[in-house]
Structure prediction request, 286 residues.
Amino acid sequence: METSVKAPAKVNLVLRVTGKREDGYHEIKSVFQKVDLFDTLTFADAPDDKIELLCDNPQVPVNESNLIVMAAKLLQKVAGVKKGVKIVLTKTIPVSAGLGGGSSDAAVTLKELNRRWETGLPEVKLQELAFKLGADVPFFLGSALAWVEGAGEVVTPLKVKKSFSALIVNPGFGISAGEAYAGSRFDFAGFDRNRELEADIESGDPHRVCRHLKNDLEPYALSHYPELKSLKYKIEKTNPQPLGLVVSGSGPTIFAIYPDMETARLAGKKLEGVAPFIETVNTLTD
Prediction:
């Protein structure tokens, strides 16, 4: 039987880097928010224990370096499964964009194959496997909005009250997380979750959310990619102007927040041609 599942993108409303661990991971304190920009994964049975991945985007590898294949093989190994699967990935989320597309695809694969193969692994075990695949993967197993700590493995759901509208603008090139972390100079200043931040983020009120937009990886992206700095300026100065904007994750995608969808769409039309990927989105709620 064939099944299709959507994998949402995420943005980082807050991303503070507070230290570096002995295992090489950086300690973060971040707010992750899912948005209604989706990849689609279609699953079908395959003979024996074969894992086959197909994708409509030639930029995406379909070999064992892909997190989808890694997730399927990891679940096979841990659960002792001898079943196979064919997965067709329809890619909409830009690649290496700071939107977590690959991590979301991996999380969907873990959840769907756990169901499809009837392995019965509990949520806590899936979370453990998710972190083995990548620091952002555990978030995608859970709620639409979360406070994320550690290297990404500590995920605390937040209760979002309503969605808000935004533009996702991607300049058409990628920045790897490894590059952004290695090239950044952090002061590792302390940053703690507080009730005001939590209440504003959970409210879904775009004005309140914009009070807290901050990304410690953004200075690297803007200083090393002048075209990104120029793009951010154009978005800031184009009427209707955003309430706030921030580079998501390691970049280079810019997330610009507007009072409502009508305003976001108008801004998107005014910005046509300044970047190859401009999409209006709403944040997701549970």
Notes: Residues 3-156 form a domain with the Ribosomal Protein S5; domain 2 fold (CATH 3.30.230.10). The two ends are 28 Å apart (CA to CA).
